[in-house]
Protein backbone atom coordinates (compact mmCIF):
# COMPACT_ATOMS: atom_id res chain seq x y z
CA UNK A 1 0.00 0.00 0.00
CA UNK A 2 1.28 3.44 -0.88
CA UNK A 3 1.79 5.81 1.98
CA UNK A 4 -0.76 8.61 2.47
CA UNK A 5 0.22 11.83 4.23
CA UNK A 6 -1.76 14.99 4.85
CA UNK A 7 -0.15 18.33 5.55
CA UNK A 8 -2.66 20.58 7.31
CA UNK A 9 -3.28 23.00 10.16
CA UNK A 10 -5.79 22.29 12.92
CA UNK A 11 -8.03 25.40 12.61
CA UNK A 12 -8.34 25.19 8.81
CA UNK A 13 -11.69 24.15 7.29
CA UNK A 14 -9.77 23.25 4.12
CA UNK A 15 -7.72 20.66 6.04
CA UNK A 16 -10.93 19.24 7.45
CA UNK A 17 -12.41 18.71 3.98
CA UNK A 18 -9.62 16.24 3.35
CA UNK A 19 -9.73 14.69 6.82
CA UNK A 20 -13.49 14.04 6.53
CA UNK A 21 -13.19 12.45 3.08
CA UNK A 22 -10.33 10.15 4.18
CA UNK A 23 -12.11 9.18 7.39
CA UNK A 24 -15.45 8.57 5.66
CA UNK A 25 -13.66 6.19 3.31
CA UNK A 26 -11.60 4.54 6.05
CA UNK A 27 -8.26 5.45 4.48
CA UNK A 28 -5.29 5.32 6.88
CA UNK A 29 -3.04 8.35 6.68
CA UNK A 30 -0.39 10.22 8.58
CA UNK A 31 -1.36 13.76 9.58
CA UNK A 32 1.38 16.38 9.68
CA UNK A 33 0.58 19.67 11.42
CA UNK A 34 2.14 22.65 9.62
CA UNK A 35 3.16 25.91 11.24
CA UNK A 36 2.14 28.47 8.63
CA UNK A 37 4.31 31.14 10.23
CA UNK A 38 7.31 28.89 9.64
CA UNK A 39 6.44 26.64 6.71
CA UNK A 40 8.24 23.30 6.52
CA UNK A 41 10.58 22.39 3.68
CA UNK A 42 8.12 19.63 2.76
CA UNK A 43 5.27 22.11 2.27
CA UNK A 44 7.48 24.42 0.19
CA UNK A 45 8.60 21.47 -1.89
CA UNK A 46 5.14 19.93 -2.35
CA UNK A 47 3.24 23.17 -3.03
CA UNK A 48 5.98 25.51 -4.29
CA UNK A 49 3.77 28.17 -5.91
CA UNK A 50 0.87 28.70 -3.49
CA UNK A 51 2.65 27.28 -0.42
CA UNK A 52 -0.72 26.49 1.14
CA UNK A 53 -2.17 23.61 3.08
CA UNK A 54 -3.83 21.18 2.64
CA UNK A 55 -1.50 19.00 0.62
CA UNK A 56 -2.18 15.29 0.23
CA UNK A 57 0.88 13.20 -0.53
CA UNK A 58 0.07 9.79 -1.96
CA UNK A 59 2.97 7.47 -2.70
CA UNK A 60 5.31 10.47 -2.63
CA UNK A 61 3.21 12.48 -5.12
CA UNK A 62 1.65 15.73 -3.85
CA UNK A 63 -1.81 17.09 -4.67
CA UNK A 64 -2.94 20.50 -3.47
CA UNK A 65 -6.21 22.51 -3.49
CA UNK A 66 -8.83 20.90 -1.27
CA UNK A 67 -11.51 20.41 -3.95
CA UNK A 68 -8.98 18.81 -6.31
CA UNK A 69 -7.87 16.55 -3.47
CA UNK A 70 -11.49 15.57 -2.79
CA UNK A 71 -12.05 14.45 -6.37
CA UNK A 72 -8.76 12.55 -6.32
CA UNK A 73 -9.73 10.75 -3.10
CA UNK A 74 -13.09 9.81 -4.60
CA UNK A 75 -11.37 8.27 -7.64
CA UNK A 76 -8.57 6.47 -5.87
CA UNK A 77 -10.70 5.09 -3.01
CA UNK A 78 -14.13 4.47 -4.50
CA UNK A 79 -15.47 2.73 -1.35
CA UNK A 80 -18.23 4.63 0.51
CA UNK A 81 -18.77 6.75 -2.56
CA UNK A 82 -19.23 10.45 -1.95
CA UNK A 83 -20.79 11.02 -5.40
CA UNK A 84 -24.05 9.67 -6.87
CA UNK A 85 -23.73 7.22 -9.78
CA UNK A 86 -26.31 8.88 -12.04
CA UNK A 87 -24.38 11.30 -14.33
CA UNK A 88 -26.94 14.10 -13.94
CA UNK A 89 -26.97 13.80 -10.16
CA UNK A 90 -23.19 13.48 -10.20
CA UNK A 91 -22.79 16.73 -12.15
CA UNK A 92 -24.66 18.47 -9.34
CA UNK A 93 -22.64 16.83 -6.60
CA UNK A 94 -19.10 17.56 -7.77
CA UNK A 95 -17.19 20.20 -5.83
CA UNK A 96 -17.40 22.59 -8.79
CA UNK A 97 -21.18 22.67 -8.70
CA UNK A 98 -21.62 25.04 -5.75
CA UNK A 99 -19.49 27.46 -7.70
CA UNK A 100 -21.92 27.24 -10.61
CA UNK A 101 -25.07 27.93 -8.63
CA UNK A 102 -23.40 30.63 -6.63
CA UNK A 103 -22.02 32.16 -9.80
CA UNK A 104 -25.55 33.39 -10.49
CA UNK A 105 -24.98 35.82 -7.66
CA UNK A 106 -22.33 38.29 -8.60
CA UNK A 107 -20.39 38.96 -5.45
CA UNK A 108 -17.43 41.23 -5.09
CA UNK A 109 -15.41 38.25 -3.86
CA UNK A 110 -15.40 34.45 -3.85
CA UNK A 111 -18.00 32.82 -1.59
CA UNK A 112 -15.58 31.86 1.15
CA UNK A 113 -13.90 35.25 1.19
CA UNK A 114 -17.27 37.02 1.28
CA UNK A 115 -17.93 35.21 4.57
CA UNK A 116 -14.38 35.63 5.81
CA UNK A 117 -14.70 39.40 5.35
CA UNK A 118 -17.53 39.37 7.88
CA UNK A 119 -14.99 38.33 10.38
CA UNK A 120 -12.14 40.63 9.36
CA UNK A 121 -14.10 43.81 8.56
CA UNK A 122 -15.63 46.42 10.87
CA UNK A 123 -18.35 49.09 10.68
CA UNK A 124 -20.07 49.85 7.37
CA UNK A 125 -17.77 47.54 5.48
CA UNK A 126 -18.87 44.69 7.72
CA UNK A 127 -22.58 45.60 7.26
CA UNK A 128 -22.11 45.33 3.52
CA UNK A 129 -20.57 41.88 3.86
CA UNK A 130 -23.33 40.78 6.23
CA UNK A 131 -25.97 41.66 3.64
CA UNK A 132 -24.05 39.76 0.98
CA UNK A 133 -23.54 36.76 3.28
CA UNK A 134 -27.29 36.55 3.95
CA UNK A 135 -28.01 36.58 0.21
CA UNK A 136 -25.45 33.84 -0.35
CA UNK A 137 -26.81 31.66 2.45
CA UNK A 138 -30.28 32.00 0.95
CA UNK A 139 -29.01 30.76 -2.40
CA UNK A 140 -27.10 27.89 -0.79
CA UNK A 141 -30.25 26.94 1.13
CA UNK A 142 -32.76 27.25 -1.70
CA UNK A 143 -30.76 26.31 -4.79
CA UNK A 144 -28.25 23.98 -3.23
CA UNK A 145 -29.95 22.13 -0.42
CA UNK A 146 -33.64 22.35 -1.28
CA UNK A 147 -35.63 19.88 0.81
CA UNK A 148 -32.89 17.27 1.10
CA UNK A 149 -31.22 15.99 4.26
CA UNK A 150 -27.77 16.37 2.73
CA UNK A 151 -26.82 18.35 -0.38
CA UNK A 152 -26.77 15.28 -2.59
CA UNK A 153 -29.54 13.27 -0.97
CA UNK A 154 -29.75 11.01 2.07
CA UNK A 155 -26.07 10.55 2.75
CA UNK A 156 -23.06 12.81 3.10
CA UNK A 157 -21.35 13.65 -0.19
CA UNK A 158 -18.70 15.96 -1.60
CA UNK A 159 -20.92 19.06 -1.58
CA UNK A 160 -21.59 18.62 2.14
CA UNK A 161 -17.87 18.33 2.73
CA UNK A 162 -17.16 21.45 0.66
CA UNK A 163 -19.77 23.39 2.68
CA UNK A 164 -18.58 21.89 5.98
CA UNK A 165 -17.18 25.28 7.00
CA UNK A 166 -20.75 26.56 7.27
CA UNK A 167 -21.43 23.89 9.88
CA UNK A 168 -18.23 24.10 11.87
CA UNK A 169 -16.73 27.54 11.34
CA UNK A 170 -19.37 30.12 10.43
CA UNK A 171 -20.74 30.52 13.97
CA UNK A 172 -17.24 31.03 15.33
CA UNK A 173 -16.36 33.62 12.68
CA UNK A 174 -19.59 35.57 13.25
CA UNK A 175 -19.25 35.37 17.03
CA UNK A 176 -15.70 36.67 16.91
CA UNK A 177 -16.68 39.29 14.33
CA UNK A 178 -19.65 40.36 16.50
CA UNK A 179 -22.33 39.88 13.81
CA UNK A 180 -25.53 37.86 13.86
CA UNK A 181 -26.10 35.59 10.90
CA UNK A 182 -27.35 32.11 11.85
CA UNK A 183 -29.90 33.10 14.47
CA UNK A 184 -32.66 30.87 15.87
CA UNK A 185 -35.36 30.68 13.22
CA UNK A 186 -33.24 32.00 10.35
CA UNK A 187 -32.30 29.70 7.45
CA UNK A 188 -34.22 26.76 8.99
CA UNK A 189 -33.34 24.18 6.31
CA UNK A 190 -29.69 25.11 6.37
CA UNK A 191 -29.64 24.98 10.16
CA UNK A 192 -31.26 21.53 10.05
CA UNK A 193 -28.50 20.47 7.65
CA UNK A 194 -25.86 21.83 10.05
CA UNK A 195 -27.37 19.59 12.74
CA UNK A 196 -27.42 16.54 10.43
CA UNK A 197 -23.87 17.16 9.31
CA UNK A 198 -22.41 17.64 12.79
CA UNK A 199 -24.33 14.65 14.13
CA UNK A 200 -22.77 12.30 11.60
CA UNK A 201 -20.45 9.97 13.55
CA UNK A 202 -17.36 10.71 11.43
CA UNK A 203 -17.85 14.49 11.41
CA UNK A 204 -18.66 14.63 15.13
CA UNK A 205 -15.37 12.94 15.97
CA UNK A 206 -13.41 15.13 13.60
CA UNK A 207 -14.11 18.76 14.38
CA UNK A 208 -11.61 21.12 15.96
CA UNK A 209 -12.09 22.14 19.56
CA UNK A 210 -14.66 24.97 19.86
CA UNK A 211 -12.89 27.00 22.56
CA UNK A 212 -9.53 26.57 20.89
CA UNK A 213 -11.00 27.87 17.63
CA UNK A 214 -12.61 30.86 19.36
CA UNK A 215 -9.30 31.82 20.94
CA UNK A 216 -7.41 31.27 17.66
CA UNK A 217 -9.79 33.32 15.50
CA UNK A 218 -9.95 36.11 18.13
CA UNK A 219 -6.19 36.45 17.87
CA UNK A 220 -6.41 36.47 14.06
CA UNK A 221 -9.08 39.20 14.06
CA UNK A 222 -7.14 41.36 16.50
CA UNK A 223 -4.07 41.06 14.30
CA UNK A 224 -6.02 41.83 11.11
CA UNK A 225 -7.62 44.93 12.65
CA UNK A 226 -4.26 46.15 13.95
CA UNK A 227 -2.62 45.79 10.53
CA UNK A 228 -5.19 45.27 7.75
CA UNK A 229 -4.10 43.75 4.44
CA UNK A 230 -4.50 46.40 1.75
N1 LIG B 1 -8.09 27.19 -2.16
C1 LIG B 1 -7.30 26.51 -1.17
C2 LIG B 1 -7.28 27.33 0.10
C3 LIG B 1 -6.32 26.78 1.15
C4 LIG B 1 -5.90 27.86 2.14
O1 LIG B 1 -6.35 29.03 2.09
N2 LIG B 1 -5.01 27.49 3.07
C5 LIG B 1 -4.50 28.43 4.03
C6 LIG B 1 -4.80 27.97 5.46
S1 LIG B 1 -6.51 27.94 5.81
C7 LIG B 1 -2.97 28.51 3.90
O2 LIG B 1 -2.30 27.52 3.74
N3 LIG B 1 -2.43 29.72 4.01
C8 LIG B 1 -1.02 29.92 4.00
C9 LIG B 1 -0.63 31.11 3.16
O3 LIG B 1 -1.51 31.69 2.49
O4 LIG B 1 0.54 31.46 3.18
C10 LIG B 1 -7.88 25.11 -0.92
O5 LIG B 1 -9.09 24.92 -1.13
O6 LIG B 1 -7.12 24.20 -0.57
Automatic annotation (TrEMBL):
<feature type="domain" description="GST N-terminal">
    <location>
        <begin position="2"/>
        <end position="81"/>
    </location>
</feature>
<dbReference type="InterPro" id="IPR004046">
    <property type="entry name" value="GST_C"/>
</dbReference>
<protein>
    <recommendedName>
        <fullName>Probable glutathione S-transferase</fullName>
        <ecNumber>2.5.1.18</ecNumber>
    </recommendedName>
</protein>
<dbReference type="Pfam" id="PF00043">
    <property type="entry name" value="GST_C"/>
</dbReference>
<dbReference type="Pfam" id="PF02798">
    <property type="entry name" value="GST_N"/>
</dbReference>
<dbReference type="GO" id="GO:0006749">
    <property type="term" value="P:glutathione metabolic process"/>
</dbReference>
<dbReference type="InterPro" id="IPR010987">
    <property type="entry name" value="Glutathione-S-Trfase_C-like"/>
</dbReference>
<dbReference type="GO" id="GO:0004364">
    <property type="term" value="F:glutathione transferase activity"/>
</dbReference>
<dbReference type="InterPro" id="IPR040079">
    <property type="entry name" value="Glutathione_S-Trfase"/>
</dbReference>
<dbReference type="InterPro" id="IPR045074">
    <property type="entry name" value="GST_C_Tau"/>
</dbReference>
<comment type="similarity">
    <text>Belongs to the GST superfamily. HSP26 family.</text>
</comment>
<dbReference type="InterPro" id="IPR036282">
    <property type="entry name" value="Glutathione-S-Trfase_C_sf"/>
</dbReference>
<dbReference type="InterPro" id="IPR045073">
    <property type="entry name" value="Omega/Tau-like"/>
</dbReference>
<dbReference type="InterPro" id="IPR004045">
    <property type="entry name" value="Glutathione_S-Trfase_N"/>
</dbReference>
<feature type="domain" description="GST C-terminal">
    <location>
        <begin position="86"/>
        <end position="229"/>
    </location>
</feature>
<dbReference type="GO" id="GO:0005737">
    <property type="term" value="C:cytoplasm"/>
</dbReference>
<keyword id="KW-0808">Transferase</keyword>
<dbReference type="InterPro" id="IPR036249">
    <property type="entry name" value="Thioredoxin-like_sf"/>
</dbReference>
Amino acid sequence: MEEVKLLGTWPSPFSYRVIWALKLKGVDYQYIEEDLSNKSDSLLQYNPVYKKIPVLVHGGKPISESTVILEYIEEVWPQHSLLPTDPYEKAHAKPGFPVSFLAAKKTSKSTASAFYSLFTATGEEQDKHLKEAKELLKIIEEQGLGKRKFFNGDSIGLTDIVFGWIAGWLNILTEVGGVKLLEPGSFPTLQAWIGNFKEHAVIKENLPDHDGMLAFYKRVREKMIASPIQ
